[in-house]
Design brief:
Blueprint (H helix, E strand, L loop, with lengths): L9 H5 L8 E2 L2 H10 L3 E6 L4 H11 L2 H10 L1 E6 L4 H15 L6 E5 L5 E5 L13 H13 L1 H22 L3 H4 L6 H15 L17 H15 L4 H18 L13 E2 L7 E2 L2 E2 H18 L2 H18 L9 E2 L2 E2 L8 E2 L7 H7 L5 H7 L30 H8 L3 H19 L7 E2 L2 E2 H18 L2 H17 L11 E2 L10 H18 L2 H18 L32 H16 L2 H13 L1 H6 L5 H9 L5 E6 L7 H10 L7 E6 L12 H5 L9 E6 L2 E2 L6 H12 L7
Parallel strand pairs: 1-3, 2-3, 15-16
Antiparallel strand pairs: 2-4, 4-5, 6-7, 8-9, 9-12, 10-11, 13-14, 15-17, 17-18
Helix pairs in contact: 4-6, 9-25, 10-11, 10-12, 10-25, 12-13, 12-18, 13-18, 16-17, 18-19, 18-20, 19-20, 20-21, 20-22, 22-23, 22-25, 26-28
Length: 724
């Protein structure tokens, strides 16, 4: 066992038995590199990464390759999920040097931690247009041993690092002029997505297709505003988002038996996925389908939300209340052998026919696209892993099946439900994929938001309780009791790595969503305290916006900012929304001023590539709508049915710019600061639960009637566009 055996990261522990003399990222490794004059070989990945497993088996478990690494380099392993700061820095180098990035990431560093060569996966011999890893190690070692070549390598690394530092440095002058017309930026961002929209299969661009949930948040908010203004592009934005969500829900990227979504689709059809399941995908997609349900009222969207969150609660939740990070794509086939991607999820037609009743098997095969020879499309299985296998997809609707088999539609649904349960029970007996059981603050913050928002929209107490549990867990176990600072990860106890900007931003957002669900001042107070800490630790006083790191770690040679809303949203994008929400709730102009400074700091990005930051665009949409408050004055919903009825109506529409509040008459906590007197001035009708809808702090007459409240809110949300 090497030095990684003392770590808690599942990814590092996977490599603890390698013959490579791995060291974790830290001063011990850096000191050894300086003392021995050797370059560092830095390998970055995560425990559920398919190609990380491949490179580990091919190279890091090989004695000869390990010997080369141990002799000529100081090998260092990093879990990118535990140390996103290290990953972000060296990914910037690899992408700049090679034009692409990914994991495993392989980077060679000078002893002072500057990169001079890098890439992603390297095979054991020349293939896929990539050099063989052992030969590459020998070549780099040979160059390093020659003094002239070493000096050239060091000079190259210094030059690159200087240019990288310049590229990430923003001056105060760049953001000093503020933003140009937000409407123009938002229109340009929408046109970018519309031009890349796949009108046949949904999504944007060609294969592989990633869900990228931040795009849906922007499209939905863009649609709400444009529909208010009578702009037909609002309908277009809505249809693009809903069509894509429906295609994803029908495709193989969705687990039709156990719930949840796989990482991405390898083809343009949403058919064959990369079978990994990530917590951040489940959380963000649950939010997207919740928004879709609020906009359309369609049960199919609510069903996806329930299946996704029920998967989290069943398979990913810890007894203490947090959620594990991910499940692997690879697992052992039922018949044994070595781990194969998708083995847990795919089926042969013969298996399905043997498990289901004779009257149900053809029906199930028709609806879920099961074929005797397997159903993977040409080109979607380049390694031949799914020959003769079926990835379940929703190829036909229940109505189409009812016509085909001359059955009532209700009977079709009954048989399909029974069939799914039978197959799920059988699948659960197969060897399960590896689960990464560390608990990350940021990703759990996303899950907190998903549970809280779904609890509101679906009126589901289970999700509210789960949201309260995860919030309590994070605040108890992932916050240093002495400093109040967040920690990044928990596994067998709190980790030692401090929280990053994303940990703060995502948890603050989750707490604000939980406050809007429970109206308990504690959650708003905690969000406010964390926002103050985030401002102190990460805010860039010179240029505006938030750095990703605190700057306390001397091994991080640059403080970078994350501005791309990809698989995970950028902390600056989430923070912008948080600041606007806090301003709306508390009336403190400092939050709005900081949000405006953040937008200004991102001016260059928004002008040149607005599609890179759809969640930031979503926050910018909010600035064009007047402050909207719905204040319900009445007893708590647990004590008063009239309050519950009003809240149920208030939570139905998709109104992201609405501040929803509940106060018992005469009790407005001091927490609400400048806004407290405004809230306290609202009094219910004759002691009854009453709703006040206020725009720009001008309130309409209160109503106790949920039908009247529905009509008032409809003017702001616009009627749903109906079934596509």
């Amino acid at each position: 066992m090497n030095a990684l055996a003392r770590e808690t990261s599942p990814y590092l522990l996977q490599h603890a038995g390698n013959p490579v003399a791995w060291l974790p990222w830290g001063e011990a490794a850096f000191a050894q590199a300086r003392a021995e004059g050797k370059p560092i070989f830095l390998s970055i990945g995560y425990s559920t990464c398919h190609w990380c497993h491949v490179m580990a088996h091919e190279s890091f478990e090989d004695e000869v390759t390990a010997g080369l690494l141990n002799k000529h380099f100081i090998p260092v392993k990093v879990d990118r999920e535990e140390r996103p700061d290290v990953d972000r820095l060296y990914m910037a180098y690899v992408q700049a040097a090679t034009g692409q990035g990914g994991w495993p990431m392989s980077v060679w560093l000078t002893p002072d931690l500057k990169p001079f060569y890098g890439g992603t996966y390297f095979p054991p011999d020349n293939r896929y247009g990539r050099p063989g890893f052992p030969a590459l190690l020998g070549r780099i070692a040979g160059l390093w041993q020659q003094q002239t070549d070493r000096e050239a390598i060091v000079a190259q690394s210094e030059g690159f690092f200087a240019s990288l530092a310049e590229s990430v440095r923003q001056t105060k002058e760049e953001g000093s002029e503020g933003l140009p017309d937000p409407r123009a930026l938002l229109a340009e961002g929408f046109e970018s997505f519309r031009s890349r929209f796949d009108g046949r299969e949904g999504g944007f661009g060609s294969a592989p297709k990633f869900p990228r949930p931040a795009v849906f948040e922007f499209l939905f908010r863009h649609a709400v505003r444009l529909r208010r203004e009578g702009n037909p592009d609002g309908e277009a934005a809505l249809r693009i988002a809903l069509f894509t969500l429906d295609k994803m829900a029908a495709g193989g990227m969705r687990d039709h038996l156990g719930g949840g979504f796989h990482r991405y689709s390898v083809d343009a059809l949403w058919h064959v996925p990369h079978f990994e399941k990530m917590l951040y995908d489940q959380a963000q997609l649950a939010l997207a389908y919740t928004a879709a349900y609020r906009l359309t009222g369609e049960a199919r969207h609510a069903a996806v939300v329930r299946e996704t969150l029920d998967y989290l609660l069943t398979e990913m939740a810890t007894p203490e209340g947090g959620f594990h990070s991910a499940e692997d794509a690879d697992s052992l086939p039922p018949e044994g052998g070595h781990p194969v991607e998708g083995a847990y999820y795919v089926w042969t037609a013969k298996e399905i026919a043997a498990l289901l009743p004779a009257e149900s098997a053809p029906l199930f095969a028709f609806v879920y696209g099961v074929e005797e020879s397997g159903n993977t499309p040409p080109g979607s299985d380049p390694h031949g892993e799914f020959v003769g296998k079926n990835v379940l997809i929703r190829r036909h609707s229940s109505a189409e099946a009812a016509t085909r088999f001359a059955l009532p539609e209700e009977e079709v649904e009954t048989r399909l439900t029974a069939a799914r349960r039978t197959l799920l029970a059988t699948r659960s007996q197969r060897p399960r994929p590896h689960r990464d059981d560390k608990i990350l603050t940021a990703w759990n913050g996303l899950a907190l938001s998903a549970l809280a928002v779904a609890a509101q929209a679906l009126d589901e107490p289970r999700y509210r309780l789960a949201a309260e549990r995860v919030a309590a867990f994070l605040l108890k176990h992932l916050r240093d009791p002495k400093t109040g600072r967040l920690l990044r990860a928990y596994r067998e106890g709190p980790g030692t790595v401090g929280g990053f900007a994303e940990d703060y931003a995502f948890l603050i957002a989750g707490l604000l969503d939980l406050f809007a669900t429970t109206f308990e001042p504690r959650w708003l107070s905690e969000a406010l305290a964390l926002q103050k800490t985030m401002d102190a630790l990460f805010w860039d006083d010179a240029a505006g916006g938030y750095f990703s790191t605190t700057g306390d770690d001397p091994s991080l040679l640059l403080r970078m900012k994350e501005d791309y809303d990809g698989a995970e949203p950028a902390p600056n994008s989430v923070a912008a929304g948080n600041l606007l929400r806090l301003h709306r709730l508390l009336g403190d102009a400092a939050f709005l001023t900081r949000a405006q400074a953040l937008f200004s700091s991102q001016r260059r990005l928004l002008e040149r590539v607005p599609e890179a930051a759809p969640l930031l665009l979503a926050a910018l949409e909010e600035t064009l709508l007047p402050p909207l408050h719905l204040v319900i004055v009445g007893l708590p919903e647990s004590e008063c049915e009239a309050t519950r009825v009003l809240l149920r109506e208030a939570r139905r529409p998709f109104l992201p710019h609405l501040a929803l509040l509940l106060f018992t008459p005469g009790t407005v906590p001091d927490l609400f600061g400048n806004q407290a007197s405004f809230y306290a001035s609202l009094r219910g009708e004759n002691g009854k639960a009453s709703a006040f809808l206020c725009e720009n702090f001008a309130c309409q007459l209160p109503t106790t009637n949920p039908v009247v409240l529905h009509s008032l809110l409809e003017k702001h949300s616009q009627p749903p566009i109906g079934v596509l």
